[in-house]
Design brief:
Number of domains: 3
Distance between the termini: 40 Å
Strand order of the largest sheet: 2-1-3-4-9-8-7-5-6
Helix content: 25-40%
Number of helices: 15
Radius of gyration: 25 Å
Strand content: 15-25%
Enzyme class: ligase
Number of strands: 18
Binding site for ATP: 220-226
CATH class of the largest domain: Alpha Beta
CATH architecture of the largest domain: 3-Layer(aba) Sandwich
Largest sheet: 9 strands, mixed
Bound molecules: adenosine-5'-triphosphate, xanthosine-5'-monophosphate, glutamine, magnesium ion
Shape: globular
Pfam family, one: GMP_synt_C
Protein name: GMP synthase [glutamine-hydrolyzing]
Catalytic activity: XMP + L-glutamine + ATP + H2O = GMP + L-glutamate + AMP + diphosphate + 2 H(+)
CATH superfamily of the largest domain: HUPs
Length: 517
């Protein structure tokens, strides 16, 4: 059984990042809502617990608590921010509102020998209003910062540690070393979470789940479903039946290019279903973003079901769902964070679905998926393809989705994309901190007045969006050259009917998201 570290989520926006960092250390890690039934967690046979940060204050009525099994287990525990305050509160120390919030860079000095943080000065990232003001019995003060006299604490005998700062964010340069010390030196977890191991484990799991039934693989041409299908293919070969649905929400030329690419690595066994009319009808009159996502999720499943009915022995549906889809849709077993968007393949699924799901990537992050794709021998162009959301252009066409507005959006998007490609700014295998991770156009139902050829115009607005990102959980807008923006803007206004104004989106994530809906 794989050694596992459990992160209990107290509502921090960073909780997922903690799990990712531990996985980067090649130790398997899963994230759970702090109030998950203990059986579910104990079944994973954990080697240690990490308690995340969170917005609540431990001394308030109704604040999330520390489940008894955590300390009863006798296993190592690391409390981060709220997690540290929770340990303090529970074990008899004192937590109180600090004089002022401490948000941003700080320096922590550690002056006592301990296995978590060797003595010295650390640049760290803080984000808290409460602070520890008295240690629980049995704990030792290990380090302090100017605003947090009790910034690092530990009980060596019980292997329980607390840190007020966030080791999981980039702004804490030695954060990875601190997490490594925890999972390695303190928990003694085996570091065997490698692509090879992941592949072997998923292949075995898929075989055990499916037996000799057939699996309908929903493939989009994106990285996730391609890697998932390759895994399922490795597990059950010819029992796999791949289906690509043309939902009418694709970009220009996408149907053709996906067909070519998928046929190439699926030995020509790809099925294509034209369902564009069904999606358009399902979206007719719908403008609210979550309602669009639900309508699309349901239509996808109904199409998969009607396709499967014409085949024999298909009881399973494979989707390329990955961990961020699950967490962001707030699949109830996982996250304490707020729902930002329901991904069509998780939160958008209808309740009465006739399939059992096969989702070999459900607990993997995007970078892990890419590494597995590489280990399975998928081509680079596929592995580094820009993500394209399943709900497609519907979530980039704000307001009502109609065939006409989709055509406008498609034409504008094709101009932006082709200019970026011509400038060699688009495909950057390997990813980078500042290059384009995703670029597209969104169409706003906002009309403004313009003048073209001495005629008054009153038309909609196109937004250009280009972001850099490693993991799509955070992103920054790309500083594109003015000349390129000028060319794209003039081409869109001149060549695309229905648009008389072009704007560039200058918002990072957070506080915005990458997509507009
Ligand atoms: N047009 C489609 N036809 C069939 N299945 C689809 C289609 N679009 C999406 N799906 C299913 O929904 C899942 C989620 O879509 P999503 O866009 O998150 O993943 P992806 O397309 O595989 O990868 P990427 O995130 O790189 O675009 C896909 O993995 C696939 O199983
Ligand atoms: O398959 C998907 N189904 C969805 O419902 C969905 N919503 C957003 N995305 C993609 O996820 C990444 C983060 O997007 P946001 O910053 O807009 O939340 C970006 O890469 C988005 O393109 C989706 N992918
Ligand atoms: N980021 C956090 O975990 C914050 C913890 C607590 N709510 C505070 O403000 O101190
Ligand atoms: Mg996709």
């Amino acid at each position: 059984m794989t050694d596992t570290i459990i992160v209990l989520d107290y509502g921090s926006q960073y909780a997922q990042l903690i799990a990712r960092r531990v996985r980067e250390l090649q130790v398997y890690c899963e994230l759970f809502h702090w109030n998950t039934p203990p059986e579910e967690i104990l079944a994973l046979n954990p080697k240690g617990y990490i308690l995340s940060g969170g917005p609540a204050s431990v001394y308030e009525e109704g604040a999330p608590t520390l489940p008894a099994y955590v300390l009863d287990s006798g296993l190592p525990v690391l409390g981060i921010c709220y997690g540290m305050q929770l340990l303090t509160h529970d074990l008899g120390g004192k937590v109180a509102p600090g004089g002022e919030r401490e948000y941003g860079h700080a320096k922590v000095n550690v002056n006592v020998d301990n296995p978590l943080m060797p003595q010295g000065d650390y640049e760290v990232w803080m984000s808290h209003g409460d602070r520890v003001e008295g240690l629980p019995p049995g704990f030792e003060l290990l380090g302090s910062s100017a605003n947090s006299p009790w910034a690092v604490m530990g009980n060596a005998e019980r292997r329980i540690y607390g840190i007020q700062f966030h080791p999981e964010v980039h702004h804490t340069p030695q954060g990875m070393t601190i997490l490594e010390n925890f999972v390695d030196a303190i928990c003694g977890a085996e570091r065997d979470w490698t692509p090879k191991h992941i592949i072997e484990k998923s292949v075995a799991d898929i075989r055990a789940q499916v037996g000799d039934a057939r699996v309908l693989a929903a493939v989009s041409g994106g990285v996730d479903s391609s890697v998932a299908a390759a895994l399922v293919h490795r597990a059950i070969g010819g029992q796999l039946c791949a289906l690509f649905v043309d939902n009418g929400l694709l970009r220009q030329g996408e149907l053709e290019s996906v067909q070519v690419a998928l046929n190439e690595h699926m030995d020509g066994s790809l099925n294509v279903l034209d369902a564009s009319q069904d999606f358009l009808s399902a979206l007719s009159g719908v403008t609210e973003p979550e309602a669009k996502r639900r309508a699309i999720g349901e239509t996808f499943i109904r199409k998969f079901e009607s396709f499967a009915r014409q085949q024999e022995n298909i009881d399973f549906l494979m989707q390329g769902t990955i961990y961020p889809d699950v967490i962001e849709s707030r699949a109830p077993e996982r996250s304490a964070a707020q729902v930002i968007k329901s991904h069509h393949n998780v939160g958008g699924l209808p309740k009465d679905m006739h399939f059992a799901l096969v989702e070999p990537l459900r607990y993997l992050f995007k970078d892990e998926v890419r590494r597995i794709g590489a280990a399975l021998g998928l081509p680079d162009e596929l592995i580094w393809r820009q993500p394209f959301p399943g709900p497609g252009l519907a979530v980039r066409c704000l307001g009502e989705v109609t065939a006409e507005r989709l055509a406008t959006l498609r034409a504008a998007d094709a101009i932006f994309t082709s200019e970026l490609r011509a400038a060699e700014l688009l495909e950057q295998p390997g990813g980078s901190d500042t290059g384009i991770a995703q670029a597209f156009v969104a169409l706003l139902p906002v009309k403004s007045v313009g003048v073209m050829g001495d005629q008054r115009t009153y038309q909609e607005t196109a937004v250009l969006r280009a972001v850099s990102s490693q993991d799509f959980m955070t992103a920054d807008w790309v500083r594109l050259p003015y000349e390129l923006l000028a060319r794209v803007s003039s081409r869109i206004v001149n060549e695309v009917k229905g648009v008389n104004r072009v704007v560039y989106d200058l918002t990072s994530k957070p506080p915005a998201t990458i997509e507009w809906e």
